[in-house]
Fold:
Amino acid sequence: MPCPESTEITGEKDLWSFCRSSQAQAREEWLQEVADVAVEIGKRYECPLAACAVITVDKIKINVVSLHTFEDRMVEYAFNPIGDTDFWVQEPRYVKCWRAYGTFRYSITVTCSAPTAAAVRQTFIDAFLKAAKAFYDPFFTGWGGNVTFGKKCDEWADWMVTWIRENDWKGHGIRKIEKVIYKGAVSDHVLVRITFDDGTVIYLDPWRYGPDKAVREKQEYEQYMGRAPDDAFEY
Structure:
């Protein structure tokens, strides 16, 4: 699905208003609440793609199916134990509670758009770190995993490439996904390099750093590991 993409949300909802001092106020309050609730329904819509997650509520149509008002005597008695104002012999009631309730149908058009480049990167990083924490094995990751039955760096790299592609980031915020292999004297090290649409490059290395610190900027990572090999495998 390309960005932007518009979607129509339809449905029906029941709504009760809070106490108001008059019948007219209760009706007016209910109608205002209907408009506010419809906006919130639109804002809560979840766009199918994380890379197109900026929601704009474009158009709202509301059809009131039913609307009733009543005086909530139970609330009035609770706040005014002196009695009912309908009887002239008693003191005036200080709290009146008119409430409105009804049903409305809505049709809401929302648009899912691509956020700014910085927001795309942050959205990706947040989603990736959450997924990496779920995949992480604190006992058998890193050097310990190489000599046991734990997750090795190539398993991490396979998982990262699969996760990125399955979540449809390629082409929706990410331009290039690469497996990078650093040759070592004892063993090679595999990780993933990401190039975003705006050209920003980051390295993903949860095997070495753990999921909390897995995301590394290009300059920082290559300063530590050396210049990245040219023979990266693109996915």
Summary: Residues 5-113 form one domain. The first strand starts at residue 5 and ends at 16. The chain has two domains: 5-113, 117-234.
